[in-house]
Amino acid sequence: MPDSFTQLTESKSTGASAVFDKLLESLQTSKDYHRLFDAKLMRKKQQLGLPLLRPTSLDDVPTDKRTEFEKTYVEAAREVGQLFLDAGQITNAWLYFRTIRESEPVAKVLAAMPSRREPGDETEELIQVALFEGACPTKGVEWMLKTHGTCSTITSLEQQMARLPANDRKNCAAILVKHLYTDLTESVNADAQRRMALAPPANSLREAIAGRDWLFQEGNYHIDVSHLNAVVRFARFLDKSSPELKLAIELAEYGSHLDPQFQYPGDPPFTEFYPAHRHFFLALSGEKVDEAIAYFQEKLDAEPDDNDKQLIAYVLVDLTSRIGRWDDAVQLAEQHLLNLEEGSSFSFGELCRDAGRMDVLQRVAQSKNDLVTFTAALLS
């Protein structure tokens, strides 16, 4: 039987189309999918009358033919990516789907995989794709917790959190909150039973520490306090629909019982780290809302430093908008955050839009002599 090179040579007599048919068939049969991608683009270049030696390059594609070539590029990447995915070669599949910005096929496969994996090179590659390259961050966090532990997972998520979409941030935070809550509750129960042999295990962290201040005497704690600090901070990415929000409240309550030396202060308004977070989480869940707003408003009014005042106002605007107090959010932002927009993720215009207060945006734009923003607000 003639080899593939001979077959290609023989098929040339019937034209280039026959050569490419034979080439694609051979590469598909041998599962040489990377070269299959190259061959698909080479065929398109031949059809367009372009040079063939750099089949995947766009540099030699003229402007009038670029749209047609790019369409073939996307189709070929999608097809080859799926072939790799069907073969279980997720890292190779991701190369193609990431290039065309279609993460969903890989994300679906990753999400369906078991959370428990053995450590090893394959797991590391999957974590790289899932978490660090953003294909399925929640699965990446689950795998990191199983194979690397809490400390490394927190460190990695610290680096990635700002790059993640809001929903992924929320879901990753939820995983860590639940994980730490479970570990901490088990640790507190174990400590209580060592001291009181007949004490039944509590069903919640709040129940486990209720009336037991002796659990915290002499600087005692039950989990790495830096991990607790980080996870409580991550929990601000939760929303009122998150079941883990109740767990975050209990984590903040636990932290408030720690010896002061272990209650590391955060940035304003979270200098009283755990009490401030408890107020924030309670308000987010719809409990003691007025008390929480008053707590942060008092911090805002008392803050002498302009930069810290903006930080506090930003948190208060975020909180009030998330609990539906839109007029309060717009008023606070107009007072304190109008100069924050440049270089930040905050947009006063988007806040006014979401609040249905384009009249306020018109007024502010007019005061700044900003005709463009005024027109956008007028016509929106």
What's a quick, concise take on this entry?
The protein is mainly α and 380 residues long.
Derived from helix and strand composition plus strand pairing, the structural class reads: mainly alpha
Provide the number of structural domains.
Answer: 4
Fraction in helix: 55-70%
| Average pLDDT number | 95
| Intertermini distance | 71 Å
Order of helices and strands: HHHHHHHHHHHHHHHHHHH
> What can be said about the biggest beta sheet?
none
Q: What is the general shape?
A: flat
Instruction: Round the Cα radius of gyration to an integer and report it.
Output: 29 Å
Number of helices: 19
Give the strand content. under 5%
Low-confidence stretches: none
Number of strands: 0
List keywords for this structure.
flat; 19 helices
Topology:
Layout (H helix, E strand, L loop, with lengths): L3 H8 L4 H14 L3 H16 L14 H24 L3 H10 L4 H9 L8 H12 L4 H24 L5 H30 L9 H5 L15 H10 L9 H14 L15 H12 L4 H14 L3 H17 L3 H11 L11 H8 L2 H10 L3 H9 L1
Helix pairs in contact: 1-2, 2-3, 3-4, 4-5, 5-6, 7-8, 8-9, 9-11, 9-12, 11-12, 12-13, 13-14, 14-15, 15-16, 16-17, 17-18, 18-19
Explain this structure.
The longest helix has 30 residues, at 166-195. The protein has 4 domains: 1-102, no CATH class; 118-164, no CATH class; 169-207 and 219-287; 291-380, no CATH class. Helix 12 packs antiparallel against helix 13 (273-284). The protein has 380 residues and is mostly helical. It is flat, with a radius of gyration of 29 Å. The chain contains 19 helices and no strands.
